[in-house]
Amino acid sequence: MAEAEVTPGDGTAAPEGGAEGTPSAAPATAGAASPQDTTLLSRISGLDAKVTSLAESNKAKDTTIEALQKQVAEMQSGTIDKDEALRAQVAQKDAELELVRKEAALARIEAKYPETFAVLGEAAAALTADQLAASEARFAGVPAETTAPVPVGTGAPRAPQGGAKAIEDMNLAELRAHLRTFGPSDLGLSD
Predict the structure, then answer these.
(1) What is the rounded CA–CA span in Å between residue 32 and residue 38?
(2) What are the distances in angstroms from CA 102 to CA 85, 117, 118, 124?
(3) H/E element holding 6?
(4) What is the four-CA torsion angle of 169, 172, 176, 177, rounded to 10 degrees?
(5) I want to staple 124 with a disulfide (CB 3.0 to 4.6 A). Which of 18, 86, 120, 179 is the partner?
(6) In the chain, what is the greatest distance between 2 CA atoms, to the nearest angstrom?
(7) How far is CA 116 from CA 84, 89, 103, 112, 185, in A?
């Protein structure tokens, strides 16, 4: 085996029988690769992987473009698949059937609950039968069943406003007014 010749410019060895200036797989020294060689080899590997992934994605895009071009050509020539035409007809018939069902439901609501339908219109279709009956009764003038409102707070009830105040809670003017209500006999004096 012949020794590789070291080129003076970059310190790398020229490959055996290879062109000068191409990267060498064998390092210039017999033992370990130089950091520069390792870095270059790592960069080359990364670039190779990137080129491979780009080529694969390019090939996938070309396949997609060809399929789309065929589909456009079929649509332009009017040769759309018969199944697709039938599916479109079925979807149209389903939409018509849904519209007829909705109109029939609205007609039943209008016949059974005319006041509610007059006020709510198509929104009445979203209500249940109980809600429709209750709203019909309200709109027709029958008072709705009401219950007494439940108090919200849990605090003690307030004292009535018209009651007498305790003597300890009265101010001077209130106390004088209260004393004037007593007669002489109430105070232990004789007339």
Answers:
(1) 10
(2) 26, 14, 17, 11
(3) strand 5-6
(4) -60
(5) 120
(6) 151
(7) 43, 37, 16, 9, 72
Query: 101: which 2 tokens?
Result: 């069902």
Measuring CA to CA, which residue among 133, 124, 128 is closest to residue 106? 124
pLDDT by residue for the chain (191 residues), tens only, comes to 444 444 554 555 545 544 444 555 444 554 567 989 999 999 899 889 989 999 999 999 999 999 999 888 877 776 666 777 788 889 999 999 999 999 998 899 888 888 888 888 888 888 888 998 888 888 877 655 667 766 676 666 666 666 678 888 888 998 888 888 888 888 777 75
Tokens of 98: 């849904």
Dist. CA 147–CA 191, nearest whole Å: 59
Question: How many C-beta atoms surround the C-beta of residue 182 within 10 A?
Answer: 10
Angle, CA 132 vertex, CA 126 and CA 136 arms, to 5° = 140
Return the domain boundaries, the chain. 34-80, 82-144
